[in-house]
Amino acid sequence: MRDTLLEEWIHVMPYGSSAARNALLLAYLRIYNGRRCHMALGGLTP
């Protein structure tokens, strides 16, 4: 998941600070784990 975080979350947009970036982490993880299509599931969401 580390590469995914780098490509889809950290490097997607500039953040004003590490605190601002970290504040959005939980929202990103909810999307990643709950709504994003997963290749391991044949493109389905969990």
Secondary structure topology:
Elements: H1 2-10, H2 18-23, H3 25-34
Summarize the model shown.
Helix content is 54%, strand content 0%.
Overview of the molecule:
The protein is an all-alpha fold and 46 residues long. The protein has one domain. 54% of the residues lie in helices and 0% in strands. It starts with a helix and ends in a 12-residue tail after the last helix.
Features of this protein?
single chain; 46 residues; mainly alpha
- What is the number of helical segments per DSSP (H or I, 4+ residues)? 3
Secondary-structure-based class equals mainly alpha
Q: Characterize the biggest β-sheet.
A: none
Helix content: 40-55%
Give the low-confidence spans.
none
Give the mean pLDDT.
77
- Apparent shape: elongated
Could you give the distance between the termini? 16 Å
Number of strand segments: 0
- How many domains in all? 1
Q: What percentage of the residues does DSSP assign to strands (E)?
A: under 5%
Question: Nearest-angstrom radius of gyration?
Answer: 12 Å
SSE string, helices as H and strands as E: HHH
